[in-house]
Design goal:
five-stranded mixed beta sheet; 195 residues; 9 strands; four-stranded antiparallel beta sheet; 25% helix; alpha+beta; Lipocalin
Length: 195
Amino acid sequence: MFKIRIENSIYFLSLLIIITFSSCDGRDKSRQDPKQILTEKDMLTSFSERINYVPESFSETVTDTILHTGYKVHIKTYSDMKSNILKSKIKDSLNIKTFYRNAISDVSIAFENKNIFDHTISKAFIINNIKGTPETLQPYILKSIWIDDDHVASKDTVLLNILYRKPEDAKENKSFLLTISKTGDYKITETTTKI
């Protein structure tokens, strides 16, 4: 009698387990698209947005140049981790946000072992020295500062080329020419892009 009850209990328990597992096969979810499932679980925002930083981490470049005319030029360019330009695009219902970090350059120039120029080159430096550039320079990031190769033989001045470029558009450039005299006086002018 107990043997029959145990067998019936085992059959009943087995049948109950089979029914339970067969009803939890996820057929109701298979008819929903992934976006609906993520919306139900409040996870859509974490999967519908990708954030990128360019550069991803702090970067720095240092250039020291000694010219035969007596000038020593030190340029240190680094990422500004607090300032960036946002470019956003939607691709396959994914919002891709790319933050392009601005760059800053510390430039120091010595002539015959006497420091004549020591400034940080940034958008603020250019805006303060050229009137009317604030609006036009905002969507650009600093790409490079270099010594003008065509003018290295001059003992009176050092010329530095400054290039700003729009992120994701290599054809959109703004370039400036920074002229520093041997007395430390300087002048900055907007020029046509050399690149």
